[in-house]
Amino acid sequence: MLADGTVRYIAVEGPIGVGKTALARRLANEIGGRLVLEGVEDNSFLRLFYEDSRRYAFHVQLEFLLGRYRQQRELAAGGLGDRSVVTDYLFAKDGIFAGVTLDDAELGLYRQLFELLDAQIPRPDLVVYLEARPDVLQERIRKRAREYERGITRDYLERLTEAFRQFFHDYTEAPLLVVDCSEIDFVEHRGDLADLIKEIRDTRQGVQHYIPLGS
C-alpha cells in the first residue's frame, strides 16, 4: 500500500468473458496506475486447444504458466515503485484452469512446477474477483466475437465457473472483493464503473462482497 493509502498492487480475476481486462484498463486509468495484461492471444496453443481440448490442454496450460511467470518476475525485478499496478489476472488462476482441463497424471506434474514458480512471485495487495452466471458469460463471449472462442461450450463455462467459486471460497492470500457482475455492465455504463471503483478503493482487509442493486 502506498503512503496515501492507495492499494499498490491490484489483481482482477474471474472466468472467461466476465470483463477482467475491461475493468483492469478502466481501473488503471482511474487511479493513474500501471496496467499489466496477460496477453492471452500470444499463446501459440490456444486456438488448437479450443479445437481439441483433450490433446492440447497440457500444452496450452504450460505455455500460460511460463508466460505469466516471466511477466511476474519482470514485475518483481523492476519493483512496484510509487505507482499502483493493476493486472487482469492472478498468477494462481493457472491452477484453476489446470484443474478443469488436465487429467490426473498431467495435473500432478503441473502442480509440482506451479509450486516451484509460485513461491517466487509477488502477492497482490487486493484481488477483485468478478463472477457471473454461465449464460451471461456465454452471451458476452458471443458479443466479442473472437473466432477461436467459438468452440467454448456451456458445459466448459459451468465447470470453470464452479472451479473459480471453489478456489475463491478458500482464498486467504490477500484481501478479496467478490463482485457479482451478472446484472451490471461497467464497460457501457459509467455509473456502474464509478460505483465499483469506489467499492474497490474502500476494500482493505478480509473478504467483502459487492452485490450491485441491479443484481
Short description:
The protein is α/β, with parallel strands linked by helices and 215 residues long. The chain is 50% helix and 12% strand. Mean pLDDT is 87; it is low at 1-5.
Q: Could you please describe the fold and organization of this structure?
A:
This protein has 215 residues and is of the alpha/beta class. The protein has a single domain, classed as 3-Layer(aba) Sandwich (Rossmann fold). Helices cover 50% and strands 12% of the residues. The protein is built from 8 helices and 6 strands, in the order βαβααβααβααβαβ. It has a 6-stranded parallel β-sheet, with helices on both faces. Helix 6 (134-144) crosses helix 7 (154-169). The longest helix has 26 residues, at 53-78. The chain is globular. The two termini are 31 Å apart.
